[in-house]
Amino acid sequence: MVKTEENGDAAGGNLEPEQYRKMFIGGLTSSTTDETLKEFYSKWGTLVDCVVMRDPATKRSRGFGFVSFSKQSEVDAAMANRPHIIDGKTVDPKRAVPREQSQRSEANISSKRLYVSGVREEHTEDMFKEHFGKYGNILKCEIIADKNTGKPRGFAFITFDDYDAVDKCVLIKSHMINNYRCDVKKALSKEEMAKVQQQERERMDRGARSRGPPMGRGGGGWGPGGDRGGYGGQPWGAGPGGPGGYGAGGGGQWGPSGGGYGGGYGGGYGGAPGGGRGWGGEGSGGWGGPPSQGGWGAPSGGAGAGWGQGGGQGGWGTGGQGAAQSWGGSGGQSGGGGWGGRGY
Length: 344
Description:
This protein has helices at residues 7-11, 34-41, 72-80, 99-102, 125-132, 163-171, 190-210, and strands at 2-3, 22-26, 47-54, 61-69, 85-86, 89-90, 92-95, 113-117, 138-145, 152-160, 174-177, 180-186. With 344 residues, it is an alpha+beta fold. The strands form 3 sheets. A 5-stranded antiparallel β-sheet has the order 1-3-4-2-7. The protein has a 5-stranded antiparallel β-sheet with strand order 9-10-8-12-11. The protein has a two-stranded antiparallel sheet with strand order 5-6.
C-alpha cells in the first residue's frame, strides 16, 4: 500500500469526502504493484492512497485495487482520459461505490441511463438538462407523462454518452431541482434486472458454503486490516463473487456474470474462494460487506426486486408489485417485469 503524508489532512477534514475522490481499478495483471498503480495515476493528481488488493495468505494480487486522490477534480481528469493501459493491459476504472450503495445488486452494472424519481408538474425537461448537464453530455431527457392527462407520472430518464456521468450522479442520491428533491438511480432494462436478480439468488445460495470466519471486525476507516476496519466484510477475491460486476464468473470472463466490487468489493477478480479472509472482516467501517456499526451503512428494506425494493412509485423491477409493467403499459397487463413501477 502506498500512502502519502496528506492522509493527515484527510483526518483533519481538509479533504473532500473520500467517496468522491476514490476509484476502483479492475482487471489488473498479476504483476501490477502499488508503485505501478501510483506511477500511472499520479499523472492526474496527488494520490492520498493507492493499493493493489492481495490475498492475505498468499499475497497474490486479486486483480483489482483502489486509488484515492486529493480532489474530486483529479478523479474527473483520470476518468476523462480513458482508456487506461497498465502493464500492457487495458484496465477497468470506475468511481468507487460506498458500502451503502454497493449493497444494491445493480450498483455494479454500468449504465448510461439515469432514472430520476420525485418529478413534479413544476419540473421541465430543460431544468433537468441544466442540472444534470454538469455531470456529463446528455443525449436525451424524458419526463414520462400520463397518456390521458399529460401530467408527469413522477419519474424521468436522462441518457448520457458515458456511464461515468451516471456514476457521478448516483454518488449523490438526492438532487434539488427547482426546490424539490429528486432521487436518482441507474436505469436498467428488464433483461439487466433479471440478470442481477439471478446473480443475487446465486450469491445467496453460495454464501453459506463459501463464507468463513472473518479476520477481525473493522472499526471504520479505509485501511485493510483487522482492528481498524478496512474495505469491508466479504472475502476479497472470492471466486464465485457477489452480484454483477467484475468477477471471473461463468467461463472466466470479466463481466456481470459473477464477482463484483459492490457488496464486498472485488469478489472475483482473479482469485480462488477467499474462505473468509476478508479485509476488516464483517466490520463496521469501510466499503462493502455486511452492515454493522458505522461505515457506509446498508440500505433499508430487503433485497426486493427492482428500484424501490419491489415496486414502489416509479420503481423498476422484475418482481414484486412493480414488476408486471412495461414501457407505455397502463396497468399490469404485461407479464414478468419490464420498465416502470407500480401502476404504470
